[in-house]
Write a structure and sequence with these properties.
The chain is of the alpha+beta class. It is 32% helix and 30% strand. A five-stranded antiparallel β-sheet has the order 1-3-4-5-2. Helix 3 packs across helix 4.
Amino acid sequence: MQAKTPAQSRTTTTDLVLPGETNHLNAMFGGELLARMDRAASIASQRHAGCATVTVSVNHVAFTHSIPVGSVVTVEAAISRAFSTSMEVYIDVWMENMLGERTKATEAIYTFVAVDQHNHPVRIPELLPETDLEQSRYDGALQRRQLSLVLAGKLSPHDATELKALFTELEKG
């Protein structure tokens, strides 16, 4: 199985925010945006895995700016790290007003698992980051994964080597 780059999974969707997709403040419903992010992340994960994938978790979402009705919304998703059967997908959401001014509105991290026709997990290709941003996200993904596993009770804090290294580094200052 040949390794892939984040660029090979990158998925970009662009659409308008319509009045029926907004709340009483004329801003996009968060659930509508989450659905758009999930679809883009699903496509990115399937491009990387070469098979069906399923959403396992939404690990992080930061709604930095509300997105007003009439805005152009661009969702960019790419694999940030691949493990044996699961992968982390990093999502950036941009909004653009009628003047063409672009602002980052949201970022999120989802986890997907590749599955076969019987919904059993299958192995996926390794990921080879190419840019500084891709490398930074790749490096951080192992820490994020270990934290999720510790919080879920699936990994002992003692065995979370990347987290221990992070905290040791922070203590040194």
